[in-house]
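User: Assemble these into one structure.

Assistant: Restating your components, then the assembled model:
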Amino acid sequence: MNQEHISRQFDADLEGLRTRVLAMGGLVEQQLIRAMQGLKSGDMAQIEQVIATDRQVNRHEVELDEACNNVIARRQPAAVDLRMIMTVVKTITDLERIGDEAKKIAKMARDIHRGDTRVVPRVDLDPPAEIAVAMLRKALDAFARLDVNASAEVVRQDREVDSAYKAAARQLITFMMEDPRTISSSLDLLFVARSIERIGDHAKNISEYVVYLVKGRDVRHIGLEAMEQEVARPLGNP
Amino acid sequence: MNQEHISRQFDADLEGLRTRVLAMGGLVEQQLIRAMQGLKSGDMAQIEQVIATDRQVNRHEVELDEACNNVIARRQPAAVDLRMIMTVVKTITDLERIGDEAKKIAKMARDIHRGDTRVVPRVDLDPPAEIAVAMLRKALDAFARLDVNASAEVVRQDREVDSAYKAAARQLITFMMEDPRTISSSLDLLFVARSIERIGDHAKNISEYVVYLVKGRDVRHIGLEAMEQEVARPLGNP
């Protein structure tokens, strides 16, 4: 094999990894949407399907991890190629955990709809869930198009999902205090709200890895303002 | 530089990564212990210190990630050496998230002890916290000594921490139902209990990476029994 051939093979490897991450991301997004639908409708078949499909999410993670290790061992990547692979390794961990949260939401939905005598408070969790889905989609988009501006938007949206979570939590606590019969189902909904908020955190993590991939600078833990500055900085200008 | 020299340098690199992971693990363990002490004592100086020290945990993560990338780019590791580095990359993500949970516990402790009129239920969270600390310690030990039997013990203990969490949650829900004035502080304690349970999950993740490192097989998501079989299997015997 000549050098050019090896290099084309390597590009195909990297492209393969990227495609599989996006497929995993699509599956995880679908899990989250279906879990929220199940929570609303009480459709037990759908709820059970979300719970069962989590195995598929896990399989994606394990297979992608192995594929990343193989590419590193065979191709000995450096610089941006290595950053791409490390971004994949980290992204799939967060996607798997979003999958776990979707499964937890489905389990809460099962608990809520199975108890026929329970008093369920009317608190709408769609607003935070819609922000979380939008964040996940945009983070995957940022990864697909190497778009650091989309990354910055995801980080900004994390504040929105946090405040939508807090609003829902306050409502739920009010319900519990006014009618102790709602405590049990309010708690289930509170944990759903918490899962949604965590999904936002994971989407934020993914979008931060994309900045690292494109810019070569680790922007975790530095705060929104510093990250926005980094995103605005022209490439190759330290 | 001759081959032997390079190889010794490489060993020193790997040893350096291992040592730094253990230092980060020690810091995270200390954070968890101090957060739980703060919850009990209400010592505000200690609580604030835990919250402030989370930055140090984050710094460890960022620096270790960078060090791993440098070692991969310079040494082009394969087989067990590459597995070691990938184990470090994954382990530090879980350690950082344990650090986040410790910080959340400290924030809950601050909320609970700041509100002087609040009725706080007497539910002891030391039992689950002690299991979680023991799991974290054992997972770090498994990593330090490449001890897959210790890994299996951690996975077994995850069941204990889950049931200690559930017992605490049941008690807290009873308090809330009997005295709605306790709802607010019971919820804070419930979230602390939930953080402890998650710390157990992270310790379990770390111990699973050690099995992967030593045995070359990914044992995540396969269940306790299958993992125990894998741990019992002699090395090099597929």
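Chain B has one domain: 3-232.
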